[in-house]
Design goal:
Keywords: Cell membrane, Hydrolase, Membrane, Transmembrane, Transmembrane helix
Oligomer: single chain
Number of strands: 0
Mean pLDDT: 92
InterPro entries: PAP2/HPO, PAP2/HPO_sf
Radius of gyration: 17 Å
Distance between the termini: 49 Å
Low-confidence stretches: none
Subcellular location: Cell membrane
Pfam family, one: PAP2
Order of helices and strands: HHHHHHHH
Membrane topology: Multi-pass membrane protein
Length: 180
């Protein structure tokens, strides 16, 4: 049990460090904007546009992203039901929180899961340094924004990143194996 307590204390310290240190005017604007890239509406529209506007192997990658987004969203909703962790702004005092807090459980981060589940197939499709770096920078910005805005603990975000990345990798590999 001592290990669980130590891990919880490390996570709280990390949460407070990220949440409080980024509470600056320009950072708040950036993170308040970028967080929406991981939202369901934006992800669905972005993947739908890629499906419509692409062809060939790029369209297969967009299909892998759409499948990955769907599967990861179902998993997130199931996990949230079985592990209804309260959001940080509900439990913790003296934190920065966005003016539009969410009501559903905190674990895992749906935004982090969504953006990684969609972006990882594209990173695998075109692993050029500039393109991959840009996508991963945006994805990690969304993930960090969830902590900065007081909506998630670091472990919520980490599990979302891992779940989205794994789902994205597996669906890309399967779509590539089946259709190419």
């Amino acid at each position: 049990m001592r290990y669980v307590y130590v891990i919880q204390q490390i996570e709280l310290k990390l949460f407070y460090t990220i949440n409080r240190n980024y509470n600056k005017k320009m950072a708040n604007r950036y993170f308040s904007f970028i967080t929406h890239l991981g939202g369901a509406m934006f992800m669905i529209i972005a993947v739908s546009l890629m499906l419509i506007m692409s062809n060939g192997s790029l369209q297969l990658t967009a299909k892998a992203s759409a499948i990955s987004l769907t599967i990861s969203h179902i998993i997130v909703q199931l996990v949230k039901r079985f592990f209804p962790r309260k959001r940080p702004y509900v439990v913790l005092n003296e934190i920065y929180v966005t003016n539009k807090p969410l009501k559903d459980p905190s674990f895992p981060s749906g935004h982090s899961t969504a953006i990684f589940s969609v972006f990882i197939p594209f990173v695998l499709y075109s692993p050029t340094l500039l393109f991959s770096t840009l996508l991963l920078f945006l994805a990690f910005s969304v993930a960090i924004s969830r902590i900065v805005l007081g909506l998630h603990y670091p472990s919520d975000v980490l599990v979302g990143i891992l779940l989205g990345s794994l789902t994205g990798y597996i669906t890309y590999a399967l779509v590539k194996q089946i259709f190419l």
